[in-house]
Amino acid sequence: MTTIGYLGPKGTFTKLAVDYTFNGEKKIGFTTIPECIDAVDNGEIDIGVVPLENAIEGTVQLTVDYLVHQVRLPILAEVVVPIQQHLLVHPNFSGNFQDIKEVYSHSHAIAQCHQFIHKNLPNATIQFSPSTGSAAELVAKNGDTLKAAIGNKLAAEEYKLKIFKENIHDYPNNHTRFIALTKDKRKINIKHPIKTEKTTLLITLPNDEPGALHQILSAFAWRKMNLSKIESRPTKTGLGNYFFIVDVDQPYDDVLLPGVKAELEALGCQVTILGTYPVYHIKV
């Protein structure tokens, strides 16, 4: 049986993504993203699922930086899941918004609901948690009815909390990209249609020269290859030193992508294929 690890505990959006994507496998929650990735690398689990990017808050930088600087694992698949954030309270809570004194959740969830918190919870202080699931667990176990959590319906059901207000995220088109990581290429059984296929490249420039980014993009442009994302991150070797993460909307082939790789390497760039993989869009 395949063992799937995820950013836990139960009730997180990552757990929701895993539940809707994988059927029948053994599932293990981890407290942090690095712990989940390390578990794949150490052979404790077969596949690890972690968040990569949110439509409102952008890239989960911890995931990218850990994959680039600490543990290199190939991306096996991407799962895109709609995100609905709800205000969760203890079942004994009988007050109103003004009575809530503390709101717990992951920093990304808090940011996705910033305007709602600002307008509706004037007396609440924000407390950050490792995940939305751990925030819900804290509110459930604490017994303090003046505390609230931001999370999903799975968290409400798991920890027997009351949904005080549904859909409190500031923008309706809220989705998160999750990636499945594995130490060795393996077949996965996902019973959802493939939306598209994608290849992700890690590109490091030899030095900071005028027009360097233009040269990189030109290698894709003249081949008429569509880039759905390009992002720079510091190499952590000094100010002004960056690498680029590039998503190409096609699988790795025998001609175009090897040509791009050879052209960029001829310019002195280092090019690493982080994965070529299917993308699934999940309806919940």
From TrEMBL:
Q: Does the keyword Lyase apply?
A: yes
The answer, when asked if Endoplasmic reticulum is one of the entry's keywords, is no
Keywords of the record, alphabetical order, are: Amino-acid biosynthesis, Aromatic amino acid biosynthesis, Lyase, Phenylalanine biosynthesis
Indicate the annotated site residue(s) for Essential for prephenate dehydratase activity: T176
One GO CC term on file: cytoplasm
Q: Give the matching SUPFAM superfamilies.
A: ACT-like, Periplasmic binding protein-like II
Q: Which domain of life is it from?
A: Bacteria
Q: In which pathway does it act?
A: Amino-acid biosynthesis; L-phenylalanine biosynthesis; phenylpyruvate from prephenate: step 1/1
CDD domains attached to this UniProt entry: ACT_CM-PDT (cd04905), PBP2_Sa-PDT_like (cd13633)
What are the residue boundaries of the ACT domain, all occurrences included? 201-278
Q: Name one GO biological process term.
A: L-phenylalanine biosynthetic process
Q: EC number(s) in its UniProt entry?
A: 4.2.1.51
Which Pfam family name is an example for this entry? ACT
GO molecular function per UniProt = prephenate dehydratase activity
Residue span, Prephenate dehydratase domain: 3-183
The family database entries (InterPro entries) matched by this protein are listed as: ACT-like_dom_sf, ACT_dom, Chor_mutase/pphenate_deHydtase, Preph_deHydtase, Preph_deHydtase_CS
Tell me what reaction this enzyme catalyses: prephenate + H(+) = 3-phenylpyruvate + CO2 + H2O
Gene3D superfamilies, sorted: 3.30.70.260, Periplasmic binding protein-like II
Q: Which PANTHER family does its entry note?
A: PREPHENATE DEHYDRATASE P PROTEIN, PREPHENATE DEHYDRATASE-RELATED
- Record's protein name: Prephenate dehydratase
